[in-house]
């Protein structure tokens, strides 16, 4: 890519020797390319009644037009097919000749940078060639090796009044249980080549799948907001008030955009190494403040309500990963030795191990915080960032550097999440044909202002958000798992990939929506949150996600049989 840029620059300098000519030349070149791309878009997707765009509609001087053409021909001769995107756009081969020979400037740069333009289309078998199955471990490990899990672990003592021992046991049990769903659904990505919400069409149907897609978008966006707030608070803690949390949020959001912008290969490359500095920084933080962790506060004996409610928080952290699990594994080769077993094991360990360890660390920090004035002051100032800053204060300037590293460890999580958001947007509005990376920009513009607002009352916003996502995602998982094992007999070949976007060949989705909606008749009484406690949850604690999973799965079986009987699909 750098060699290409150098050649372009040399050609530019040779053909335009004065500042005025430079400006005129660049204006001409960019304008011609913009018009060419508009013409391509119009001829491919536009209405026939509209006037045809052409490069001739733009007045370009002859000399500068020739200069632009020279650069075009020189660049085309260098064989840009070497930099083909990861997922080819299906309509590209049908594009007009002018569109193929005169690529838009921005798009050429993106292609050279290995940006994935493909979206929700099933990945062809010949493209699923990645045999580095261990990447399934590294990507999940990197996504979860950061201070987000520490924040969730702190909720045990801070919000639910559980001591360190009780919090650790709840974290261990509920993490192992709720990790099964995303680990299993990760195995279907290589087998089907379909993203998670496209697979969901085979139970929810082409149109009703929009409901879980919208809920998934809200969930993923909420996680991105939380991550931006935590990262912004860490950066604010480093600056001792000179940098506001809002500015820190913007920095984290823009940095995540750059990674998610590029797509699957860049994401997997980054995630393959991001966990290393994250782990080192966390170990240093524990080394600096770990001797204080033994100063645990005393708590009342754990109650069933407290245990189940905190367990619901843990499950709400883990289960939503199931709704994007296949998005991160679709490029793996499905024919390798023990592929499903390896991907399941790598995904399970990558999710469970860092989450359990870091949430337990968070519980230890939260339990000791009230007995350590400096930590409590830091928490009152900038919450998690302030506590970590207080733990690292003994290291001086080096401690501040580590706190910055801890803030940017969150990029591994938010980048993968934003990547999944862009795919969900394309599932929601498939007729709005924009490259995936455009949605990355849109998502970032949405997340940053919401995060700035949520930062004012962070822990309340966190609890309210977590209260909602666990219920619907558990219901979703129950339905798609039953569809796979009961109606597809556990055979991925029974998913007819050829009909992925043919509504008349996909299930109606009435059974799936009916099972989900009916299950909430019992889920609501089992909810225990700050803003609402159901009559059953008064004595049992929050068991909403357990009821949502099992009841949706049970109800789906008879409803799906009835749907198949009357619709034949």
TrEMBL record:
Membrane topology classification: Multi-pass membrane protein
Cellular component, GO annotation: plasma membrane
Gene Ontology molecular function: transmembrane transporter activity
Transmembrane segments: 133-155, 167-185, 205-231, 243-267, 273-290, 302-323, 343-365, 401-422, 434-452, 464-487, 508-531, 543-562
Cellular localization per UniProt: Membrane
Protein family according to the UniProt entry: Belongs to the purine-cytosine permease (2.A.39) family.
Keywords, sorted A to Z: Membrane, Transmembrane, Transmembrane helix, Transport
Pfam families: Transp_cyt_pur
Name of the molecule in the record: NCS1 nucleoside transporter
Major subcellular site: membrane
InterPro entries for the chain: Pur-cyt_permease (IPR001248), Pur-cyt_permease_Fcy2/21/22 (IPR026030)
